[in-house]
Amino acid sequence: MKSRIVALLIASSAMGLASSSAFAQVAGAQPLGVSVEVSTAIVEGWSVKKSILNKPVVNDEGARVGVVHDIIVAPDRSVSFAIIAANQFLGVSHHDVAIPIEQLDFVGGKLVLAGATKAAIKALPEFQYTKVKAAPVPRAQFEHH
């Protein structure tokens, strides 16, 4: 099941690659949007926003241990971490932690972090966003593009 969540997240980030590389780039002829094949994949696909973001995370005993606030996508476009709020009151996070995406699983329709407790998550170092550029790095700056 863990491989399924990783595969779904990777597939959702790869959709952007498929939609942009499916057409030859000819000046003035580059279509906007996606092809019929890609739009079918989107319709049959899965939404990170609806399925993961702001959803509770439980441990293997069903106890709530946090809420997913963000998904981190690495520069190589791989999904690497989930940012989990260990202590939240009225939607305001007091202690976010980064959890490797491979440690999360879907079990019975719930997002599960096996072996976790609120105390264990609060004991992890707090995750803080670094000062990032306003926009992601352009594709032209990556060696493989």
TrEMBL record:
Residues passing through the membrane, by range: none
Q: Which residues form the signal peptide?
A: 1-24
InterPro entries (UniProt xref) = PRC-brl_dom, PRC_barrel-like_sf
Q: Which UniProt keywords apply?
A: Signal
Q: Which residues form the PRC-barrel domain?
A: 51-113
| Protein name, UniProt field | PRC-barrel domain-containing protein
- Native source organism of the sequence: Caballeronia telluris
Organism phylogeny: Bacteria, Pseudomonadati, Pseudomonadota, Betaproteobacteria, Burkholderiales
